[in-house]
Write a structure and sequence with these properties.
By secondary structure, this protein is mainly beta. The protein contains two helices and 28 strands. It starts with a helix and ends with a helix. Pfam families: DUF642.
């Protein structure tokens, strides 16, 4: 009897521990001191340089890290802060890291803001072991110089360390990117629906967007084996990104989110779908503008198998869209669906913009007779 009570007590304690671990998983939103508003003690600062490894609350630093405050200058240039009053700057080979309590085997997306300073070809190495990617940040997509980026990972353990490292090497050790506003979001694995072979075809599942950030979130190019913040959509490019938009700040054809193709022909938005060779399929999608002052011909080219279709939407920059459709016959067990912007477009302030893609669907038919009947 005593042994049974002991076993029950042990099982109860184990269940409590497991429940505590699940409950302790970090919630969606800003990371602890993710906006760096909790400042280091003045004794831990030498000018703007942070001296103590653990001086910034909730963060661990390595190398030349600066704490940037209001109206901080670099020469004659004021370094703006996108959220609140403070940000950090990473010098050559410097890094910041934070331990995160997560749910093992769950997928997460990290959103953060970054701005280039004096270096030209800046990039950031983002790591949650064993996954790591170098994100190019040299292209500026906003008028104020700040962009929000996203990156996704699968949690291999219940406690993981997020590391952001500046691998750049410049003559000035202080020349490095500014960072601010780190947030996290648990990603749900998209599933196929009865009426759509594309997963996440409406782009409703994506990275965290700060409610007070009016410039969307960039999804940078990643290796095809990595988990995308827009999974299972992939961004194929060498250095350019697509932009994830919300309906609170942009004109979205349907639902709460869409994707803006801001990098012209240098970037493709793609998804691989299982198909049956010889079977007919129909791809439909919306193409338009985000209501953000992007004026001109915003052409979207869609490809699947040997077929392609072009939707040349003439934008007034005030929102609106057209539906595009492509009928094709599959030639393999897997078909890659591709969306590309066919031109480079800029707004009046000189920032890049482009067509919006949303509400994409793919359906298959047993044969051409069935296709004609249903259409």
């Amino acid at each position: 009897m005593v042994v049974q009570h002991a076993r029950r007590a042990a099982l109860f304690l184990l269940a409590c521990v497991v429940s505590a671990r699940v409950a302790a998983a970090i919630p969606d939103g800003l990371l602890p001191n993710g906006n760096f508003e909790a400042a280091p003690a003045t004794s831990q600062l030498n000018g703007t340089r942070v001296m103590g490894r653990y001086a910034i609350p909730h963060w661990e630093i390595s190398g030349f890290v600066e704490y940037i405050g209001p109206a901080q200058k670099q020469g004659d240039m004021i370094l703006p802060v996108p959220e609140g009053a403070y940000a950090v700057r990473l010098g050559n080979e410097a890094s910041i890291r934070q331990l995160l309590n997560v749910t093992r085997k769950a997928y997460y997306s990290i959103t953060f803001s970054a701005a280039r300073t004096c270096a030209q070809a800046e990039r950031l190495n983002v790591t949650v072991a064993p996954e790591s990617d170098v994100l190019p940040i040299q292209t500026v997509y906003t008028a104020n110089g700040w962009d929000s980026y996203s990156w996704a990972f699968k949690a291999r353990r219940s406690a993981v360390t997020l590391i952001v490292h500046n691998p750049g090497v410049t003559e000035d050790a202080a020349c490095g990117p500014l960072l601010d506003s780190f947030a996290i979001k648990t990603l749900q694995v998209p599933q196929r629906t009865k009426n759509n072979m594309l997963k996440n075809g409406d782009f409703e599942e994506g990275p965290y967007i700060f409610p007070d950030t009016p410039w969307g979130v960039l999804v940078p190019p990643l290796d095809e084996d990595d988990y995308s913040p827009l999974s299972p959509w992939m961004v194929l490019s060498s250095t350019k990104s697509v932009k994830y938009l919300d309906a609170a700040h942009y004109a979205v054809p349907r639902g709460a989110h869409a994707v803006e193709l801001v990098s012209g022909v240098e970037t493709a938005l793609v998804q691989d779908v299982r198909t049956v060779p010889g079977r007919p399929y129909r791809l439909e999608f919306s193409a338009g503008d985000a209501g953000n002052g992007c004026v001109g011909s915003l052409a979207v080219q869609a490809y699947a198998a040997r077929g392609s279709v072009k939707v040349a939407y003439q934008s007034q920059g005030k929102g609106g869209y057209e539906r595009g459709a492509l009928e094709f016959t599959a030639i393999a067990n897997q078909t890659r669906v591709v969306f590309v912007s066919m031109a480079y477009t800029m707004k009046n302030d000189g920032t890049l913009c482009g067509p919006v893609v949303d509400d994409a669907s793919l359906v298959g038919f047993r044969n051409n007779a069935a296709r004609r009947l249903l259409l």
